[in-house]
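PT: before anyone asks, these are the final sequences, not the draft ones from last week. 969 residues across everything. Please model them as a single complex and drop the result in this thread when it's through.
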Amino acid sequence: MKIVVIGNGMVGHKFCEKITQKLGTNTARIVIFGEETLPAYDRVHLSEYFAGKTAEDLSLAPVDWYASQGITLYLGDPVHIIDRQQKTVTSLKGITETYDFLVMATGSAAFVPNIAGTDKKGVFIYRTIEDLELMKSYAPRASRGTVIGGGLLGLEAAKALLDLGISRTSVIEFAPRLMPRQIDDKGSFVLQHKLQSLGLQVLTGKNTSAILGEETITGLAFSDGTSLDTDMLVISAGIKPRDELAAACGLETGPRGGIVVNDLLQSSDPSIYAVGECALYNGMIYGLVAPGYEMAEVAATHIIASYTEKEPVKSFTGFDMSTKLKLIGVDVASFGNPFTPPDQSHSIVMEDSVSGVYQRINVSQDGKYLLGGILIGNADAYNMLLQTCKNNIPLPANPADVLLGPRNGGAPSGAGVDALPDEAVICSCESISKAAICQAVEAGHETLDAVKKCTKAGTCCGGCTPMVKDLITATMKAQGKYIRNVVCEHFDYSRQELLDLIKVKSLRSFDEALDHYGHGEGCEVCKPVISSILASLWNDMILAKGNDTAQDSNDRYLANIQKGGTYSIVPRIPGGEITPEKLIVIGTIAKEYNLYTKITGGQRIDMFGAHLGDLPAIWEALIAAGFESGHAYGKALRTVKSCVGSTWCRFGLHDSVSYAIRIEERYRGLRAPHKIKSAVSGCIRECAEAQSKDFGIIATEKGWNLYVCGNGGSKPQHALLLAQDLDSETCIRYIDRFLMFYIKTADPLTRTATWLNKLEGGIDYLRNVVVNDSLGIAESLETEMQSLVDSYKCEWKEVVESPELRKKFSHFINAPEEKDPTVKFETLREQKKAADWK
Amino acid sequence: MSTISSTAITWFFACKTTDVPHNGGVCIKYRDEQIALFYFSRSNSWYATQNLCPHRRQMALSRGMTGTHQGEPKVACPFHKKTFSLADGRCISDESECSLTVYPVRLEDDRVYIGVQTGVEADMQVTVETL
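LR: through. Structure below.
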C-alpha cells in the first residue's frame, strides 16, 4: 500500500504518526510533500517563538523521525498536479509519485481582506514561522504596530507584537466585539477592558478601507473617516482553506472554500481524503487542532480498514469546539454552546469588573444540565465545567454553585474527577479518555511524566494537566495506595516521618540520618530538609559537626547570596526599634566596606555587596556593637514587625513595640520548614499589617487577638483569627504550640498559609489542637519550644569567635586573602549595585 | 574526564586534602582561572569543574550543594539550583543548558592535583575575558 500525504503541518504529521502506530513501520510506503522548508511544527504555540522558543523547540519531531519510520519527506516542494486517472501526484520540482491513497492535509492560508495596499512594506500575515521571521527582522524599525483581526489568531498576533517589543500595539476588529465566534458581548467587553489595562489598544466595529503610505505603510484609513498611524501591520483576519489543488483536479469544494468530505473524511474521490483545516465537513471548517487530530485518526483508521478489507471502526461526527487559552495573560474559555437562546435555556452570569472576570453558564430549562458557557479572566473551572457539560452530569440543586461555590458555609459540592464517567475525554487534543489515563496509572505509571509518555495526554496544549494529576491521585487512592509524600530519591519518607525518626534515634547530623534512613549521597533537596529538622530538634550550631555542607547554600555562609556572588547582611533589629548609636554603627560599617544599604520590608536594614571573605570581619564589628544575626538567610523566624503603639500613638491600646521585641527575642533563630514572619499592631488600625503574617497579633481593649497563617508573597492570603482577647502570657503559649505544631507537621518549603490550606479540618482543627488541646500534646509542644528558646545562640557570634569556622569564609582556598576578581559593581543614585547578568 | 587526552595534561598542585570539606566544594585559583573542587567522602571521590555556572555566568559552583542523581555525582548552583553532573559536566536539570568543563583530579598523599590541558586553558581565557 502506498500513501501520499500532501502537507506537513500538525494534522498531516499526526496522520503519519497514527498510521505508523497502527500499522507498524514499513508496512505501508508513505511519502509526504510539504510546502514549508521546516518539518511539522507546533503552530498552536507559534507566538512563543517570540517569547524565546526556537524553531527546534516548536518542531513536532526531528527530521530523522521520518526516516526512522520509513517515511519519505520532501520539504519546500509543494504538489502542483494531481492526476486522479493515473493516481499520481507531481511536485513543483518535478517529482512524480503514484498513490493508492492520497491524503490532503494542505491546511489553510491567512485570509487577506480585499483592502488596497496589502503589498506595502511593513504589512505581514501571521501564519508560519517564516512569517514570524519576517516580522521579527522588521520589528526593530517599528514603534507602533497594528493587527487586523480580533479573533483568536489576531490576539495571538498582538501578543507576538508585544513580545517583539512594540509596546504601542492596536487590534482592529470589524465586528462590534472581540472573538465574535467564541464569546458574547459582555464577555468581550470585559476582555477588551482587561487587554486595554495591559497596554493593548482595542478598536472594534472598524472597517479598514485602505492601507496608507507610499512604498511603506504609515497608517490605516477606516470607512468611518478616521485613521490610525502605524509602522507595521499584521493581518490575521481569519483563515481560508487551501483547496485550490483539490478544485483543480475536480474534487468537490464548498462555495466558500474547503474540500467536501464525508464522515470517513473521504472527498468526492473515495481514494482521496482531506483532513484538518482544508476539509469541509457538514458545511463547517474546523480551525482548531483537536478536531484536526480526530480527523487524522478517523482517516488513518479508515485507510487501514479499506486496505485490510475490514469494517472501519470510527467515523467523524463533528467536534466540540470548546477551547481554553491564555491571551496576553488573560484566561479566555468557551465550551459547549456558549450562545444558547433564552427560550431554550437559562443563563447564570457572574460579572466582576473590579478584577476583570466574566463567567456565564447556560443551563437547560429544567436547571439540571450544563449546556455551555464562557469564562473570561478566570478559567480555573474550565476542565470541570467542560466535563460536566460533555458528559451530561447533573448539576447541583442550586446550579449557581458551580460558578460561585457553595455558600452558607456548606461543604464543597459538585463533582471531582471521581464523578466523571470512564469515557469522559480528558485530553481533547489527543482524545484520551479518563479510562485510558486510569488504566495507565493502574499499570504503574504513577507520575505525570510517566502518564504523559504512556498515553500522550497533556502533551499538546497542556490544559488538561491539572485534571490528569487529580486522576493519578484519585486512581492511586482508589487502589488503596498510600500516596507517599517522600522527600526525594534519597529518603523514602515524608518530612514529618523523618522528623519523628530522627528525634527517636537522637540523630545529630545529616550523615547519621543518611546512614540510618537514606541511600545514595543526598542532594540539594534532602540536605536542607534534614538540616532544618536537626535545627528544629536540637538547635545545634548549624555549621558544626560537619553539617556545614549539608546546609542550603545561604545557610552555609550565614548570608544571602546576591547577583555577582557577593552577599547581603541583615542584623536583627527586634520590633524595628533601633538606637541612634546603632544606626551610626551600621552606617560606619557600610561605609568602611562600601556596602549598598536599603531598608527591608521587615523594618530592618540590609547591607549588600559584601565579599565572602569580609563577612566575618563585618560581623565582628556588628557584634561588638551589640547586634546579632537576623537569620535573613535561613528558613527561620525573620522579623516581628511593629507599629509604634501606645508609647507614642494617640490611638494605641497597648505597647506593641515592647511585645514585638519580646516575641522576636523569644523565637529568634527558630528554624522551620519555611521562613516565618510576624507582626504586632497596637490597635485595630493594624498599621503593622499583622494579618498578612504567619502569626500576627492585634491589640484589643481586653488583650491581644492572635491571627495565624497569613501570607504576603506571590499568593497573598489573610491570616485567620485563632483566639481572642488573650493576655500576653497565654498568647505566647498559643504561639509556642502553633509554631511547634507547624514545624513538626509541615512539608518542606511550605509556608503556614499553604500548610493550613492542606490541613484537613482547616482553622477549626488547628484551633482545637492549639487552644483546646484536642490531641493532648500542648504541654510537650510548649516544652519543646522552651528548650529551643533556652538553647539559642547567635551563630555569627560563634563564627566570629572561632578561627576554624572563620577560615571557611574565603573565596579561594589556595589564596584566602584574594577576593573574587570577577565581581563587578556599577553605580546607581550614589550607591553601588551589582553588575547586570546576562 | 576520559575525553581529555592524558598526553596534553599539565598537573598543578591545588590544595591539601584537609582543605576541602567533606561532601562539599572549594574554589581553586589557577593562574587567572577559577576551578571548583569537590570531595565526596562516602565514595572517597574527587571531582573538578569550572567554577562558572553557565546559566547566569556566576562564579558560584564551588559554593553549591553536592549530591547524587540516580547514583551520578552532581552539584547544584546556589543561584537557581541548576544541577550539573560532576562526571561529564552536563546540566541534569535542564537539557538546553551548556555543559561544564570537567578536569581530572589526582592525589599524591595528602596533596590534591588538578589536570589542565593547554588547549583548555586557552578556552578558559576567552571565557573570563567575555565576563
